[in-house]
Structures are given as C-alpha cells and as structure tokens.
C-alpha cells in the first residue's frame, strides 16, 4: 500500500542476528566510529553522512593460515556447480559471510581470464603485460561481481522479513544490465535510471530483456544518480549503486584472482579505468586484505585511468589531491565512465595515496587508437579498456612503467557491447577522431583475378 509518499510493506523489521564464525559489518569510512549491520538499509553514516565500508573480523580470518587460504581457494576453483562455484562466492568468507548459501544469487561470475598481451607496445616494449578480461562475465562487464553480492544480500534480508519491494540503480549501461540480470535470477523487481540516448543499444536491450522497469531520463549519469538517491531515500527501495559498499566486496575479488592467476605473485602495476571510482577502492581493498592476512607480502602501484573529457580525479591528482571539484563531463567514447561527480571519489583518493598511485588522462584519439591496436593482438576491447591501455602507453613512454614491470590492465567490459566505436573508426565515419589504423572491407567484383589482385594489394607480410 502507499502511505505519505512512501512504499510500505509489512513484515519483521529487525532481522535476528546470524551465528557464524566469520562476521562482517558496515563502518563509517570517515572514521567517526559508527557501525551498522549489513542487514540495515543504509548507505551513509547517520552521524557524519560519509560513505560506509564493509569490515571483516580479521581475528577470525587470521585463524586460517595464508597457505590454508590459498589451498582452500585453489580447491574451490574445481567446483563446477552449487553456490560456491563462481569466482566471487568461492571467497565467501572474505566477501559476505552473512549470506546463507541458499540465498546466494549467482550466474557463475568471476574466474575471468588473465591474458598475456603481446605486441601492443613496440617501443618501449613491455615484456610482462596482462589484461584481466572482466568483461568475460555473464552480462559482459565487471559489474556482475558486485551485483551478485548485493542482490544476494537483498535476498537474505527479505528472507528475514526486511521490507524491500524493489532494487534500483542509476547507470551508464553496465550496472543496469547486471542488476537486471541478477534481479531476474532472484525474482526481484528491478528499476534502472538511464540517461536517455547516452548508452549503446547493446546495453539498453539488456535490462529491457531481463524485465527491469527501464526509465530513460533526459539527463546525464550524474543527474540520474541524484534522482535515484532521492527516490531510494524517500521510498524503501534498495539502492544498488557503488556508494553501496556491498558492491565493492564482490569487485575486490578481481585483485584476489589476479594474484591467484599469477601463482600468488603480486604485479608491479595495476591500471584501472575510472568513472564512478568504485573499482579503484575495490581492488585496493582486495590487495590490502591479502596483505593483512599474509597471503601477499607487498602492494602493487595503482594507476587510475580517466578519459580526458571526464577527468575530475586527474585534475585533483595534479594538485596532490588537496581538493576535489566535480566537473561537467563531456561526451566521450568511453561512455560508461562519462562521470563528472564520482560517488566513490574519497575512497579512491585514499586508495591511491595508500598504493603510491597515479592518475592519467587519455584523449579521445588515444582511446580509439589503443582499442584498435589492442584488437590487432586478438582482443575485442571496449572503449574503457582503451582508456586503461592508453594510460599504460603514456606511462611507458615517460618511463614510469618500464620493461621490468609486471603490469595488469583491467578490461571492464566486452567490446561487443560497444560496436559503434569500431564501426565508425574502420568505416571512416568517426567525426571526432582520425582513423590511421582503419581496416574497412575491400569491395571486390565476383571474379577470381580481381579477388587475387585485391589480396595481393592488401596482404602485408
């Protein structure tokens, strides 16, 4: 029923505590000391309005030795079905032990490839370069990793009588796709706030197909983010954006997977495309958790890569993060990170300071060229991965990253979700960038001699 502008559902409001060896809870990120249960519908500290972070009982976790954790995670890699089969829930004790196995909502996310990349940079050459293909996931982006945790926790809360009629998010495309898929899997109503005309058709059709209430709003992502926060604060609809730190718990498993795939070795650099900046703090938390539990003995350096047309963190970095000012993001090929007022900015800044990190910006031409050159190595990159690869190239040219460094670039989504960039580039229809590496189809008449001539004219050995 509707009452006083708020959706009201009847049920038990205070879920009983769960008895577990491992515990996790929300804590104020600003350090004011406030602490909340994961079963509470809360996104900011009630005392100081700071974002929250998920904390774990490290004393309990430390009872298991580093070697035992490695063995446990390696054994679970062999599980082919059931709640712990995916790459996120295989690390359940580190992620969200509050969720009972029967409430886990999974689409076998995680365990994405770590691909060694050859030939992307010729001068200077990087000999130990990898791309973590987070887009090789169910909905085609890393957002699956966070949404499996968040939707599972919603299912847990509802099983305990907490009133949650629907789950909602603002999105530039990928979050809405992941949320819609996991809500459909769980049988939960889903609402997505999308900036009209600013996401690709490949992204838009995903929440539509999964049955989400899809709102195309005449604004940009930042406008959608303001609206979804207002609506979820006035209605008891659960907010699924990355300001909800449950998302971070799933995304931090990318760091664990990288180290595991490298034989429990830490890379020297991790390059992360940054928009709303949740992924920067997520991977930072993953590496820090492994360090605190003795699984690794050092930290990598982190580079946050931003599109030049949406670069508020880069501008703050130039002033040693003394202040941060939002910007009005301009149109960029990397549409999913076209964000001028990122929610997780202070978490990202803290992470970059802790990891001796840097921020680099990449122009539209650099994004397009990086995508094309990476595709020539056998990938099919999204433009946001192009931002990461473009930043890598700039850091290599200025020798901040050298041939002795082991580097991992985070590929955030599958290129099939962003085909128009490639079509426009190769067909010569891109208005904002040149296309020096274009490879358009060659028109040939249906005659053998014409075909042979075309092959000889275009064959480069």
Q: Describe it for me?
A:
- The protein has 461 residues and is α/β, with parallel strands linked by helices.
- The protein contains 16 helices and 15 strands.
- The strands form 4 sheets. Strands 6-7-15-12-13-14 form a 6-stranded mixed β-sheet, sandwiched between helices.
- Strand 1 (2-3) and strand 2 (6-7) form a beta hairpin.
- Helix 4 (143-159) runs parallel beside helix 5, helix 5 runs parallel beside helix 6 and helix 13 (364-375) packs across helix 14 (383-397).
- Residues 1-19 have low confidence and may be disordered.
Keywords:
single chain, 461 residues, alpha/beta, Rossmann fold, 6-stranded mixed beta sheet, 4-stranded parallel beta sheet, 16 helices, 15 strands, globular, disordered N terminus
Cα shape: globular
* Number of DSSP E strands: 15
Under CATH, the topology of the domain at 114-140 and 247-427 can be stated as: Rossmann fold
Total DSSP helices? 16
* Low-pLDDT segments, ≥5 res: 1-19
Mean pLDDT across all residues, rounded?
Answer: 92
The span between the termini is: 71 Å
Helix content: 25-40%
Strand content: 5-15%
Strand order of the largest sheet: 6-7-15-12-13-14
The class by helix and strand makeup works out as alpha/beta
Question: Under the CATH scheme, which architecture of the domain at 114-140 and 247-427 would be assigned?
Answer: 3-Layer(aba) Sandwich
Give a quick account of the main beta sheet: strands, pairing sense, barrel closure. Answer: 6 strands, mixed
Computed CA radius of gyration, to the nearest angstrom: 22 Å
CATH class of the domain at 114-140 and 247-427: Alpha Beta
């Amino acid at each position: 029923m509707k009452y006083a502008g708020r959706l009201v559902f009847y049920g038990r409001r205070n879920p009983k505590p769960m008895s577990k060896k491992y515990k996790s809870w929300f804590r104020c990120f600003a350090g004011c000391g406030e602490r909340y249960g994961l079963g509470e519908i809360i996104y900011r500290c009630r005392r100081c309005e700071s974002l929250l972070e998920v904390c774990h009982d490290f004393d309990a976790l430390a009872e298991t030795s580093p070697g035992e954790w490695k063995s446990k995670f390696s054994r679970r890699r062999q599980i082919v079905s059931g709640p712990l089969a995916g790459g996120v829930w295989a690390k359940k004790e580190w992620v969200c032990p509050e969720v009972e196995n029967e409430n886990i909502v999974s689409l076998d996310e995680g365990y994405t490839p770590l691909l060694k990349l050859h030939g992307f940079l010729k001068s200077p050459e990087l000999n130990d370069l990898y791309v973590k293909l987070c887009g090789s996931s169910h909905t085609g982006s890393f957002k699956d990793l966070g949404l499996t945790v968040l939707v599972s926790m919603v299912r847990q809360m509802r099983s305990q009588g907490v009133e949650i009629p629907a789950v909602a998010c603002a999105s530039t495309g990928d979050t809405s796709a992941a949320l819609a898929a996991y809500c459909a899997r769980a049988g939960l109503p889903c609402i997505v706030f999308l900036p009209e005309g600013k996401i690709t058709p490949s992204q838009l059709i995903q929440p539509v197909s999964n049955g989400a209430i899809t709102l195309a709003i005449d604004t940009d992502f930042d406008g959608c983010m303001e609206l979804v926060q207002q609506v979820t604060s006035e209605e008891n609809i659960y907010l699924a954006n990355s300001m909800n730190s449950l998302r971070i718990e799933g995304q931090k498993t990318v760091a664990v997977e990288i180290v595991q795939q490298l034989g429990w070795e830490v890379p020297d650099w991790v390059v992360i495309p940054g928009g709303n900046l949740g992924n920067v703090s997520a991977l930072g938390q993953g590496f820090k958790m492994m360090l605190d539990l003795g699984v690794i003995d050092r930290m990598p350096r982190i580079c946050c890569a931003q599109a030049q047309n949406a670069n508020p963190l880069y501008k703050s970095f130039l002033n040693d993060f003394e202040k941060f000012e939002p910007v009005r993001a301009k149109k960029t090929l990397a549409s999913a990170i076209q964000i001028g007022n990122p929610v997780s900015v202070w978490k990202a800044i803290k992470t970059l300071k802790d990891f001796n990190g840097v921020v680099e910006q990449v122009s539209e031409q650099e994004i397009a060229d990086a995508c094309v050159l990476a595709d020539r190595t056998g990938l099919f990159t999204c433009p946001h991965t192009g931002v990461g690869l473009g930043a890598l190239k700039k850091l290599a040219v200025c020798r901040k990253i050298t041939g002795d460094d082991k580097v991992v670039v985070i590929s955030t989504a599958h290129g099939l979700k962003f085909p128009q960039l490639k079509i426009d580039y190769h067909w010569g229809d891109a208005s904002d960038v040149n296309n020096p590496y274009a490879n358009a189809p060659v028109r040939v008449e249906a005659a053998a001699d014409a075909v042979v001539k075309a092959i000889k004219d275009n064959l480069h050995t």
